[in-house]
Amino acid sequence: MIIEGAAVVIEVDNVNTDVLYPGPYLNIDDPEVMKLYLFEGLDPSLRDKLGRKTILVVGENFGGGSSREHVPLAMKASGIGAVLGRSFARIFFRNCINLGLPAIVCAEAVAAAADGSEIRIDAGKGRVEVDGRSYDTPVLPPFVIDMIRGGGLVNYVRRRLAERAASEE
Fold this sequence. Notes:
alpha/beta
């Protein structure tokens, strides 16, 4: 699975989901509307940097705090194709994968990236390129890649159950 895009860098460590998507907007369930409030408590001007094929580059322990599925949903709707970080809070990482947004850990690549850097992630081979320089990262297991390609955990399970039912007929 190859993901390419231009970097938008958040240089702050320990960014909490409560500032990425504040509580007053949690009643919104449409990702196209959610994206209007992404980064509202951190830096709303970051939304202006997002576009099709954006790779969000983040620091240490990104996404701690509340378990807000709104954040990866709003990120996907905003054109973010992957989040590349030094490290992620466990629940944020799982929410990303479960909702079909690749979350890739590679501290060296994060250190090399600047706003606008061209990033290419090969999740199946465990490689991240930043402006042509290559870095190693853990390979995503094939089932995780399949789950991300399919749009997330719910779609993955539905497809697997349908395949099982078809094979039992």
